[in-house]
Amino acid sequence: MIVEMDIISTVSMYALLLIPIGIFIWLQMGLVKETILSALRMTVQLFLVGLYLKYVFQLNNGFVNLGWVIIMMVAANSSVLGKSGLKRKLFFWRTLIGISVSTFIVSGWFVLVAIRPDPFYDARYMVPIIGMILGNCQRSNVLSLERFYSGIRNNEQEFMTYLMLGATLSEAIRPYLRTALKSCVNPSIATMATMGIVSLPGMMTGQILGGAMPMAAIKYQIGIMLCIFAAMVIAAVVNILLSLRVAFDEYQRLRPNIFQ
User: How far apart are CA 172 and CA 188, in angstroms?
Assistant: First the structure.
């Protein structure tokens, strides 16, 4: 049985923000307003989503579930481009394809092959699993796109030297692609290596708090972590490769107008 938090208990959790806010003020980091607004946005969005998902779970319609997933993907893609510093109008559809392909392939395998719920579009499985995979892809894509294009821009002479020595565009970008991919997957590799010893992950903890047996929760956690890692790698590589056509001109030079 779940011990529910009442409104007063939930509100009391905001007191913890006083500690990081105090540190930001002390260090004059200028993140106080951004932190408060982000926390308020999170609260409003989660409560609205909670109300919405209540009816989504009750209705459990495949088209409604798919519509909600598409909304999540569009929102995640917009956030990725905003945080990576790239212009939305140039990259939006390309990065959306990358996120969608990786998320649908990996989550489809998890739901249809590993879990096999009945019906297969059951909102209790489809929406949370895709949400977890998509959220991690969002963070990794921000990091990989930003590292890839900032790496080329900051080392433009080196990049042009590769091209002048006869390298193709795909060969010239490879060192920067490797760096970008490492930067987005290294934290996940470290997390997987210490999971269960250093930390108890969120999905497993949530299932145990919801009354599931620990071994059942562990199986789900293993599955979701492998899915997240695979989706992060696929999305990062596909997004970068699909973005090359608009990022470079006919002379294989990085276009300066791609950045916000």
Answer: 27
